[in-house]
Amino acid sequence: MGHNSEAIITGPASWPDVERLFGVHGEPSRCWCRWFALTGQDWKTAPPKTRKEQLKAKFDDGPEPGVLAFRGGEAVGWCAVEPRQCYPRIERSRVLKAAGAGAPEGPGVWSVSCFVVSPGHRRGGVATALLQAAVGHAFAHGAEIVEGYPVDPSLRPKAGPADLYQGTVKLFEAAGFSTVSTAVPGRAVMRLRR
């Protein structure tokens, strides 16, 4: 156990720590958390290097686009959280459309879009700490509502770690979020108001 018994500390993300956490192998190093920020054709034409530059640019112009979790001084998790309008793919998504009329709009709605947790640190409370930090970060920067789009593994039993990058319904429930739609089976839209 040793390693995982150290306290988890969270805070706004810094680019060098994000770059180290995402590394050079695996999905984070290909996506650079741009899946929801780019729509179809833009995604296809942007190589990982371009996506990385786009995420890095986010650190230069405004609040950090996410939060980090640290254990023993090492970044072990990331949670992306930005105003929903920064994520055109979410705004056009089937999951959000299925939630129907009355979906709040505007800069006061922030989205928790993605979690990245180092393989050696999963199931150790990192995602819980990240979600709390993401909510705090969003509210500190003017959010009125924080929204998430988690998976319900009980309805999607084949969902593996790669499918759970948006978190689980249980994770969001534990953080005080309410379900506003389950119109897409196995996927929820959940909200927390300030």
TrEMBL record:
SUPFAM superfamilies per the UniProt record, alphabetical: Acyl-CoA N-acyltransferases (Nat) (SSF55729)
InterPro entries, A to Z: Acyl_CoA_acyltransferase, GNAT_dom
Keywords associated with the record: Acyltransferase, Transferase
EC category: transferase
Gene3D superfamilies: 3.40.630.30
Source species, domain of life: Bacteria
EC number: 2.3.-.-
Record-annotated N-acetyltransferase domain positions: 8-194
Keyword flag Acyltransferase: yes
The keyword Cell membrane is annotated on this UniProt entry: no
GO molecular function: acyltransferase activity
The protein, known as: GNAT family N-acetyltransferase
